[in-house]
Amino acid sequence: xxxxxxxxxxxxxxxxxxxxxxxxxxxxxxxxxxxxxxxxxxxxxxxxxxxxxxxxxxxxxxxxxxxxxxxxxxxxxxxxxxxxxxxxxxxxxxxxxxxxxxxxxxxxxxxxxxxxxxxxxxxxxxxxxxxxxxxxxxxxxxxxxxxxxxxxxxxxxxxxxxxxxxxxxxxxxxxxxxxxxxxxxxxxxxxxxxx
Length: 195
Prior knowledge:
By secondary structure, the chain is an all-alpha fold. Helix content is about 65%, strand content about 0%.
């Protein structure tokens, strides 16, 4: 709809107010899919700040409150949004999921699914760097495994950080099968760069 061009003309505080007025954080999921498809057609593209605000307003509460697998509507909306605005999405949503205390099993599965199926290569690298900034835990090992499963060429400094982190954390994961699989995956995928 032509009215959506207002999204490009709002200041950040105006955009937050508009999202609140439209109740986007609690809108029905089928509408969320529709709204995200409209965002893809919007020209010019949203600014980074506007996309980050929309990522937070549209998805943050829904994703952090997941206690079972996301609905197909929510996954479709996430995939649609990520296809164009994956960087602001990662900075807002992935950062929030990583800081979430406790198990967060559904959030971890969602991160893996996004890495495996939705994110562009540069965004996969961003997720990896975000994961390596927080203390490694058993719940994050599948996310790293998903990143390695993409078989992307990693920048040397990011690969070095990954290897260093795995080496430093080895004692804490002495009995972890997931950790052993991860180390094997690194050695297999990057054997020429890992000594």
